[in-house]
User: Fold this.
Amino acid sequence: MPKKNLYLLILGFALAGYSWVILNHYLLNTNNPTLNVCLFRQATGIPCPSCGTTHAILSITKGNFRQAMEENILGFPVALMLVIFPVWILIDLIRKKESFYQFYLGAESFLRKKWVAWSALVFLLVNWGWNIFKNG
Amino acid sequence: MFLMMNNKFFEPHQLPYIHERLLLLDESKYMMLQTAGFRDPTISLVVSLLGGHFGIDRFLIGDTGLGVAKLLTCGGLGIWTIIDWFMIMGRTREVNFEKLQQVIM
Assistant:
């Protein structure tokens, strides 16, 4: 993917992500806090591997790291990405460099390594199993 | 011959360009092209319909970063999953074309 498209896409994702977290922050304080948009959960009744990430991010913003871990550990990488990536991209755009693009390409080829892909898959499956068990 | 067997892997508007490039290709690169392993857009669509929510379609075509993004966001809150049902075939052909260009350049 060309650099410009990637940067626009990630900035768009970050904007959508922040809007989503803020929306949920206000919804959780209302009488109807459930906003179940997960297609997989609605179709099967089973939570998907990343269900609970929004709640985990909201817990992280309040400093409740333990609660965030219980909700979904994937909230930590997502929160980190939401904080770091847009800033990194903006710095790149201002300085007219492509350090984030190089990082992205490197991360992609790292994730394609067999042992990394298999470890990630096992971790995700275990986390998913736990997610189903918690919500079961 | 290559185009006759593999035209479904590419966009129709790319075919004349590919044809021209193939005519100039030497034998060793032609052999490499035969083993390049292009992705079938129809398979991508089936995978997208079944496992698109987890980003498996994106992993399949080599968009690992976007696959991770899709996986971590419940398929982009379901919206991206549905968009990809329509986009994934075109993206697969695009990826195939990029792969072809890498081989013949």
